[in-house]
């Protein structure tokens, strides 16, 4: 039995607004939380005692959010249906001593975060975003969304062989953005951030800042069938998961499982943090939910045994200029629907049982889907999927949307795929 389509091109329009408003993981979870609040979810603090009442709840920790909806009548052993995603993207992040420069230029010292395509950050107008920590321990979001910084490429006249031999970038020497002229003064950047953010001078004690491209997302192509934009890996999945969770929650007592959104930070550098998928956050939240409903360890084990997670992350669409890099029998295309990602060496967690779960969700949502597997001669990337499966003993399936230019400052997907993914995720969460 099929479900009516919940999302259409308006969902993709909304995704583009979400991407523009979420230049950092901290903004992404704040925006997801705002949407959940409007749908009736409420935030619970990890330091408070939790109750077993029904309804939607969520936990925020840094750049991660875990949200869930307990339907009326759910028992302590009711299993979960989880959409897993991550909020971070490869980029340039501000160092502890940020003020630097050379030869009369003022610059900002940055570290390379994740496996970013370095050349995509060159000659691009960049803003500054993230969060600062104040004297009292509170946090304040930072979003300077104007042309503030730039990483200038060396002119071709000074690098005559660049087009023949390729661009070679040293992460330490060549990726430092400029933001003005004059003498370097210690404390300049943070003083600027305090002023921009409306914080009293000297009140900032810590920062988690990064640069972002200020160019907004846009439809692309003759028929506007493509979308170009930043941070699709993996805010596309965070946005779809948030929409799917709120849609599933509307089913209320008709649900037979507990739908969950788990959006983690630090996937791009291994997930090993207190807000990463390899940390205890998801397991702790799920266990506390079981125990809050009066459950025992036995109930927890039963709930986990019946739980399924769809790890939703972007994957590779076939590249028309490099098709030899792809498996010859698997060529995912934009607007062909979400992809099922398979790797028998467990870089992805999908097995035959997981395939059946995903196929059933897509069939119910009347959504087409595709398969992805890497070329045997190429190394395969990985996701939070295998980590989630191994850490929690949860059946996990790796899926996503096929894109081009993964890990670029600006990526490309099909305009239909975001809402096709959201429809499939909704069908999955509804059980």
TrEMBL record:
<dbReference type="InterPro" id="IPR001948">
    <property type="entry name" value="Peptidase_M18"/>
</dbReference>
<feature type="binding site">
    <location>
        <position position="157"/>
    </location>
    <ligand>
        <name>Zn(2+)</name>
    </ligand>
</feature>
<feature type="binding site">
    <location>
        <position position="86"/>
    </location>
    <ligand>
        <name>Zn(2+)</name>
    </ligand>
</feature>
<keyword id="KW-0862">Zinc</keyword>
<dbReference type="InterPro" id="IPR022984">
    <property type="entry name" value="M18_aminopeptidase_2"/>
</dbReference>
<dbReference type="GO" id="GO:0004177">
    <property type="term" value="F:aminopeptidase activity"/>
</dbReference>
<dbReference type="GO" id="GO:0008237">
    <property type="term" value="F:metallopeptidase activity"/>
</dbReference>
<dbReference type="GO" id="GO:0006508">
    <property type="term" value="P:proteolysis"/>
</dbReference>
<dbReference type="Pfam" id="PF02127">
    <property type="entry name" value="Peptidase_M18"/>
</dbReference>
<keyword id="KW-0645">Protease</keyword>
<feature type="binding site">
    <location>
        <position position="407"/>
    </location>
    <ligand>
        <name>Zn(2+)</name>
    </ligand>
</feature>
<dbReference type="GO" id="GO:0005737">
    <property type="term" value="C:cytoplasm"/>
</dbReference>
<dbReference type="InterPro" id="IPR023358">
    <property type="entry name" value="Peptidase_M18_dom2"/>
</dbReference>
<keyword id="KW-0482">Metalloprotease</keyword>
<keyword id="KW-0378">Hydrolase</keyword>
<protein>
    <recommendedName>
        <fullName>Probable M18 family aminopeptidase 2</fullName>
        <ecNumber>3.4.11.-</ecNumber>
    </recommendedName>
</protein>
<dbReference type="GO" id="GO:0008270">
    <property type="term" value="F:zinc ion binding"/>
</dbReference>
<keyword id="KW-0479">Metal-binding</keyword>
<comment type="similarity">
    <text>Belongs to the peptidase M18 family.</text>
</comment>
<keyword id="KW-0031">Aminopeptidase</keyword>
